[in-house]
Write a structure and sequence with these properties.
- The chain is an all-alpha fold and 323 residues long.
- It has one domain: A middle domain of Talin 1 (Up-down Bundle).
- It has 13 helices and two strands, in the order ααααβααααααααβα.
- Strands 1-2 form a two-stranded antiparallel sheet.
- Helix 4 crosses helix 9.
- The longest helix is centred in the middle third of the chain and has 32 residues.
- About 2% of the residues have low confidence.
Amino acid sequence: METWLSLLGGLALLVIGGELLVRGAVQAAERIGISPLVIGLTLVGFGTSMPELVTSVQAGLGGFPGIAFGNIVGSNIANILLIAGVSALICPVIVARSALRRDAVVMLLVAISFAVLALVVPMGRAVGSGMLVLLVGYIWFVIQQEKSTADGGAIHDKSVALAEADPGIAPPHVRNGLLIPLLIALVGLVLIVAGGSFLVSGAVAIARSFGVSETVIGLTIVAVGTSMPELVTSVIAALKRQGDVAFGNVVGSNIYNVLGIGGTTALIAPSNVPSEIARFDAPVMVAVTLLLVLFATTGLRIGRREGAILLAGYIAYGWMLWP
Protein backbone atom coordinates (compact mmCIF):
# COMPACT_ATOMS: atom_id res chain seq x y z
CA MET A 1 0.00 0.00 0.00
CA GLU A 2 2.80 2.41 0.88
CA THR A 3 4.43 1.68 -2.48
CA TRP A 4 1.29 2.58 -4.41
CA LEU A 5 0.81 5.68 -2.26
CA SER A 6 4.35 6.72 -3.13
CA LEU A 7 3.67 6.20 -6.83
CA LEU A 8 0.29 7.99 -6.88
CA GLY A 9 1.52 10.74 -4.58
CA GLY A 10 4.52 11.28 -6.84
CA LEU A 11 2.28 11.55 -9.90
CA ALA A 12 0.00 14.03 -8.15
CA LEU A 13 2.94 16.19 -7.08
CA LEU A 14 4.34 16.12 -10.62
CA VAL A 15 1.05 17.27 -12.17
CA ILE A 16 0.39 19.99 -9.58
CA GLY A 17 4.01 21.12 -9.54
CA GLY A 18 4.17 21.23 -13.33
CA GLU A 19 1.15 23.50 -13.52
CA LEU A 20 2.44 25.82 -10.81
CA LEU A 21 5.88 26.00 -12.41
CA VAL A 22 4.47 26.89 -15.82
CA ARG A 23 1.94 29.34 -14.38
CA GLY A 24 4.54 31.20 -12.32
CA ALA A 25 7.22 31.19 -15.03
CA VAL A 26 4.83 32.43 -17.73
CA GLN A 27 3.48 35.23 -15.56
CA ALA A 28 6.98 36.30 -14.52
CA ALA A 29 8.23 36.26 -18.13
CA GLU A 30 5.26 38.28 -19.36
CA ARG A 31 5.78 40.92 -16.68
CA ILE A 32 9.43 41.22 -17.64
CA GLY A 33 8.30 41.84 -21.22
CA ILE A 34 9.29 38.61 -23.00
CA SER A 35 7.41 37.87 -26.24
CA PRO A 36 4.38 35.55 -25.83
CA LEU A 37 5.72 33.43 -28.71
CA VAL A 38 9.07 32.94 -27.00
CA ILE A 39 7.25 32.15 -23.75
CA GLY A 40 5.16 29.52 -25.52
CA LEU A 41 8.07 27.90 -27.30
CA THR A 42 10.42 27.82 -24.31
CA LEU A 43 8.91 28.19 -20.84
CA VAL A 44 5.61 26.45 -21.59
CA GLY A 45 7.22 23.80 -23.75
CA PHE A 46 9.86 22.91 -21.20
CA GLY A 47 7.53 23.45 -18.26
CA THR A 48 4.91 20.96 -19.40
CA SER A 49 7.70 18.43 -20.05
CA MET A 50 9.24 19.00 -16.62
CA PRO A 51 7.59 15.93 -15.01
CA GLU A 52 9.20 13.66 -17.62
CA LEU A 53 12.49 15.55 -17.33
CA VAL A 54 12.83 15.36 -13.55
CA THR A 55 11.69 11.73 -13.45
CA SER A 56 14.15 10.62 -16.15
CA VAL A 57 17.08 12.54 -14.65
CA GLN A 58 16.42 11.23 -11.14
CA ALA A 59 16.05 7.69 -12.45
CA GLY A 60 19.30 8.03 -14.40
CA LEU A 61 21.17 9.40 -11.39
CA GLY A 62 19.72 6.60 -9.27
CA GLY A 63 21.10 3.95 -11.61
CA PHE A 64 17.78 3.01 -13.24
CA PRO A 65 18.28 3.63 -16.99
CA GLY A 66 15.28 1.44 -17.78
CA ILE A 67 13.00 3.97 -16.10
CA ALA A 68 14.96 6.96 -17.40
CA PHE A 69 14.86 6.04 -21.09
CA GLY A 70 11.71 3.93 -20.82
CA ASN A 71 9.93 7.07 -19.66
CA ILE A 72 11.07 8.96 -22.77
CA VAL A 73 10.28 6.25 -25.31
CA GLY A 74 7.11 5.16 -23.52
CA SER A 75 5.84 8.74 -23.31
CA ASN A 76 6.27 9.20 -27.06
CA ILE A 77 4.47 5.95 -27.79
CA ALA A 78 1.67 6.92 -25.37
CA ASN A 79 1.42 10.40 -26.89
CA ILE A 80 0.78 8.91 -30.33
CA LEU A 81 -1.23 5.76 -29.66
CA LEU A 82 -3.10 6.74 -26.48
CA ILE A 83 -3.39 10.53 -26.53
CA ALA A 84 -3.75 11.10 -30.28
CA GLY A 85 -6.03 8.06 -30.45
CA VAL A 86 -8.37 9.27 -27.70
CA SER A 87 -8.35 12.82 -29.12
CA ALA A 88 -9.30 11.57 -32.60
CA LEU A 89 -12.10 9.44 -31.17
CA ILE A 90 -13.54 12.51 -29.47
CA CYS A 91 -13.14 14.77 -32.49
CA PRO A 92 -11.33 14.16 -35.81
CA VAL A 93 -7.90 15.76 -35.59
CA ILE A 94 -7.29 18.30 -38.34
CA VAL A 95 -3.67 18.54 -39.46
CA ALA A 96 -2.28 21.84 -40.72
CA ARG A 97 -0.21 21.37 -43.87
CA SER A 98 2.66 23.38 -42.37
CA ALA A 99 2.67 21.23 -39.21
CA LEU A 100 2.86 18.08 -41.34
CA ARG A 101 5.55 19.46 -43.64
CA ARG A 102 7.87 20.74 -40.91
CA ASP A 103 7.07 19.55 -37.40
CA ALA A 104 5.83 16.03 -38.12
CA VAL A 105 8.87 15.39 -40.32
CA VAL A 106 11.14 16.68 -37.53
CA MET A 107 9.36 14.39 -35.05
CA LEU A 108 9.94 11.39 -37.32
CA LEU A 109 13.60 12.23 -37.94
CA VAL A 110 14.19 12.73 -34.22
CA ALA A 111 12.59 9.35 -33.40
CA ILE A 112 14.71 7.58 -36.04
CA SER A 113 17.89 9.28 -34.82
CA PHE A 114 17.24 8.25 -31.21
CA ALA A 115 16.52 4.64 -32.23
CA VAL A 116 19.77 4.43 -34.22
CA LEU A 117 21.85 6.07 -31.48
CA ALA A 118 20.35 3.77 -28.83
CA LEU A 119 21.63 0.77 -30.78
CA VAL A 120 25.14 1.94 -31.63
CA VAL A 121 26.45 4.32 -28.95
CA PRO A 122 25.99 5.02 -25.22
CA MET A 123 23.87 8.02 -24.34
CA GLY A 124 26.83 10.06 -23.12
CA ARG A 125 27.39 13.75 -22.63
CA ALA A 126 28.43 14.35 -26.24
CA VAL A 127 25.19 12.84 -27.52
CA GLY A 128 23.16 14.75 -24.92
CA SER A 129 24.82 18.04 -25.84
CA GLY A 130 24.12 17.42 -29.51
CA MET A 131 20.44 16.79 -28.80
CA LEU A 132 20.09 20.00 -26.82
CA VAL A 133 21.87 22.00 -29.54
CA LEU A 134 19.43 20.57 -32.11
CA LEU A 135 16.46 21.51 -29.91
CA VAL A 136 17.71 25.09 -29.50
CA GLY A 137 18.31 25.29 -33.25
CA TYR A 138 14.82 23.99 -33.98
CA ILE A 139 13.18 26.49 -31.62
CA TRP A 140 15.23 29.34 -33.14
CA PHE A 141 14.15 28.25 -36.64
CA VAL A 142 10.48 28.12 -35.61
CA ILE A 143 10.68 31.60 -34.03
CA GLN A 144 12.28 33.03 -37.19
CA GLN A 145 9.72 31.36 -39.45
CA GLU A 146 6.82 32.47 -37.25
CA LYS A 147 7.83 36.09 -37.67
CA SER A 148 7.15 35.84 -41.39
CA THR A 149 4.31 33.29 -41.51
CA ALA A 150 2.47 33.74 -38.17
CA ASP A 151 2.74 29.98 -37.62
CA GLY A 152 4.31 28.92 -34.35
CA GLY A 153 4.09 25.26 -35.26
CA ALA A 154 3.72 22.21 -33.07
CA ILE A 155 5.49 23.52 -29.98
CA HIS A 156 3.41 26.70 -30.08
CA ASP A 157 0.29 24.52 -30.33
CA LYS A 158 1.52 22.72 -27.21
CA SER A 159 1.36 26.00 -25.27
CA VAL A 160 -2.00 26.92 -26.82
CA ALA A 161 -3.44 23.59 -25.71
CA LEU A 162 -2.24 24.17 -22.16
CA ALA A 163 -3.71 27.68 -22.06
CA GLU A 164 -7.03 26.31 -23.32
CA ALA A 165 -7.01 23.63 -20.63
CA ASP A 166 -6.17 26.08 -17.86
CA PRO A 167 -6.82 29.78 -18.54
CA GLY A 168 -4.70 30.58 -15.50
CA ILE A 169 -1.64 29.60 -17.54
CA ALA A 170 -2.29 32.33 -20.09
CA PRO A 171 -0.06 35.37 -19.50
CA PRO A 172 -1.90 38.17 -17.68
CA HIS A 173 -1.89 41.64 -19.20
CA VAL A 174 -1.50 43.49 -15.93
CA ARG A 175 2.13 44.14 -15.08
CA ASN A 176 2.76 44.05 -11.37
CA GLY A 177 5.28 42.52 -9.01
CA LEU A 178 7.47 39.54 -9.83
CA LEU A 179 7.63 38.11 -6.31
CA ILE A 180 4.39 36.11 -6.35
CA PRO A 181 4.93 34.53 -9.82
CA LEU A 182 8.51 33.60 -8.88
CA LEU A 183 7.33 32.06 -5.61
CA ILE A 184 4.65 30.08 -7.49
CA ALA A 185 7.28 28.80 -9.94
CA LEU A 186 9.64 27.90 -7.10
CA VAL A 187 6.93 25.97 -5.22
CA GLY A 188 6.09 24.17 -8.46
CA LEU A 189 9.72 23.20 -9.00
CA VAL A 190 10.04 21.87 -5.44
CA LEU A 191 6.87 19.79 -5.88
CA ILE A 192 8.15 18.39 -9.18
CA VAL A 193 11.49 17.35 -7.67
CA ALA A 194 9.75 15.72 -4.70
CA GLY A 195 7.16 14.08 -6.96
CA GLY A 196 9.85 12.67 -9.25
CA SER A 197 11.64 11.13 -6.30
CA PHE A 198 8.45 9.50 -4.96
CA LEU A 199 7.49 8.28 -8.44
CA VAL A 200 10.84 6.65 -9.17
CA SER A 201 11.07 4.93 -5.78
CA GLY A 202 7.46 3.74 -6.03
CA ALA A 203 7.94 2.49 -9.59
CA VAL A 204 11.08 0.52 -8.66
CA ALA A 205 9.34 -1.08 -5.68
CA ILE A 206 6.29 -2.03 -7.77
CA ALA A 207 8.48 -3.52 -10.48
CA ARG A 208 10.20 -5.71 -7.91
CA SER A 209 6.95 -6.76 -6.21
CA PHE A 210 5.35 -7.76 -9.53
CA GLY A 211 8.50 -9.44 -10.75
CA VAL A 212 8.68 -7.28 -13.88
CA SER A 213 11.63 -5.23 -15.05
CA GLU A 214 12.04 -1.58 -14.16
CA THR A 215 12.10 -0.94 -17.92
CA VAL A 216 8.52 -2.20 -18.27
CA ILE A 217 7.38 0.06 -15.42
CA GLY A 218 9.17 2.99 -17.04
CA LEU A 219 7.57 2.29 -20.42
CA THR A 220 4.04 1.99 -19.00
CA ILE A 221 3.09 3.38 -15.57
CA VAL A 222 5.76 6.08 -15.38
CA ALA A 223 5.40 7.06 -19.05
CA VAL A 224 1.62 7.41 -18.92
CA GLY A 225 1.72 9.12 -15.54
CA THR A 226 4.19 11.79 -16.62
CA SER A 227 2.22 12.27 -19.88
CA MET A 228 -0.97 13.17 -18.00
CA PRO A 229 -0.62 16.93 -18.74
CA GLU A 230 -0.44 16.16 -22.47
CA LEU A 231 -3.44 13.81 -22.22
CA VAL A 232 -5.57 16.39 -20.42
CA THR A 233 -4.64 19.27 -22.72
CA SER A 234 -5.15 17.26 -25.93
CA VAL A 235 -8.52 15.90 -24.79
CA ILE A 236 -9.72 19.38 -23.85
CA ALA A 237 -8.52 20.71 -27.21
CA ALA A 238 -10.45 17.91 -28.94
CA LEU A 239 -13.60 18.62 -26.90
CA LYS A 240 -13.33 22.26 -28.01
CA ARG A 241 -13.06 21.07 -31.62
CA GLN A 242 -9.46 22.29 -31.84
CA GLY A 243 -8.07 19.16 -33.41
CA ASP A 244 -5.14 20.99 -35.01
CA VAL A 245 -3.99 22.09 -31.55
CA ALA A 246 -4.32 18.51 -30.26
CA PHE A 247 -2.08 17.27 -33.08
CA GLY A 248 0.49 20.01 -32.49
CA ASN A 249 0.50 19.25 -28.77
CA VAL A 250 1.42 15.61 -29.42
CA VAL A 251 4.07 16.44 -32.02
CA GLY A 252 5.64 19.20 -29.93
CA SER A 253 5.73 16.98 -26.85
CA ASN A 254 7.46 14.18 -28.74
CA ILE A 255 10.14 16.52 -30.09
CA TYR A 256 10.77 17.88 -26.58
CA ASN A 257 10.83 14.39 -25.05
CA VAL A 258 13.64 13.09 -27.25
CA LEU A 259 15.76 16.19 -27.75
CA GLY A 260 15.10 18.03 -24.48
CA ILE A 261 14.56 15.25 -21.95
CA GLY A 262 16.77 12.68 -23.66
CA GLY A 263 19.51 15.26 -24.14
CA THR A 264 19.37 16.53 -20.56
CA THR A 265 19.26 13.00 -19.12
CA ALA A 266 22.28 11.95 -21.19
CA LEU A 267 24.13 15.11 -20.18
CA ILE A 268 23.50 14.79 -16.43
CA ALA A 269 23.32 11.00 -16.03
CA PRO A 270 25.08 9.32 -19.00
CA SER A 271 24.27 5.63 -19.46
CA ASN A 272 23.48 2.97 -22.03
CA VAL A 273 19.94 2.59 -23.27
CA PRO A 274 18.79 -0.86 -22.03
CA SER A 275 19.00 -3.43 -24.81
CA GLU A 276 15.29 -4.30 -24.63
CA ILE A 277 14.39 -0.67 -25.30
CA ALA A 278 16.99 -0.26 -28.06
CA ARG A 279 15.94 -3.46 -29.84
CA PHE A 280 12.18 -3.35 -29.42
CA ASP A 281 10.59 -0.25 -27.92
CA ALA A 282 12.63 2.37 -29.80
CA PRO A 283 11.78 0.73 -33.17
CA VAL A 284 8.14 0.61 -32.02
CA MET A 285 8.36 4.35 -31.34
CA VAL A 286 9.65 4.91 -34.88
CA ALA A 287 6.92 2.68 -36.35
CA VAL A 288 4.04 4.41 -34.55
CA THR A 289 5.51 7.82 -35.38
CA LEU A 290 5.56 6.86 -39.04
CA LEU A 291 2.00 5.54 -38.73
CA LEU A 292 0.81 8.86 -37.28
CA VAL A 293 2.49 10.77 -40.11
CA LEU A 294 0.88 8.46 -42.69
CA PHE A 295 -2.55 8.89 -41.09
CA ALA A 296 -2.07 12.66 -41.04
CA THR A 297 -1.06 12.67 -44.72
CA THR A 298 -4.33 11.06 -45.84
CA GLY A 299 -6.69 14.01 -46.18
CA LEU A 300 -4.79 16.09 -43.58
CA ARG A 301 -6.92 14.64 -40.80
CA ILE A 302 -6.92 11.77 -38.32
CA GLY A 303 -10.47 10.47 -38.15
CA ARG A 304 -12.25 8.32 -35.60
CA ARG A 305 -11.37 5.12 -37.45
CA GLU A 306 -7.66 5.98 -37.32
CA GLY A 307 -8.11 7.01 -33.67
CA ALA A 308 -9.57 3.59 -32.87
CA ILE A 309 -6.63 1.89 -34.60
CA LEU A 310 -4.15 3.98 -32.59
CA LEU A 311 -5.89 3.24 -29.28
CA ALA A 312 -6.12 -0.48 -30.07
CA GLY A 313 -2.41 -0.37 -30.87
CA TYR A 314 -1.64 1.00 -27.42
CA ILE A 315 -3.71 -1.69 -25.72
CA ALA A 316 -1.84 -4.34 -27.74
CA TYR A 317 1.51 -2.75 -26.91
CA GLY A 318 0.74 -2.73 -23.18
CA TRP A 319 -0.42 -6.35 -23.36
CA MET A 320 2.85 -7.36 -25.05
CA LEU A 321 4.99 -5.67 -22.40
CA TRP A 322 3.37 -7.18 -19.30
CA PRO A 323 4.13 -10.84 -18.61
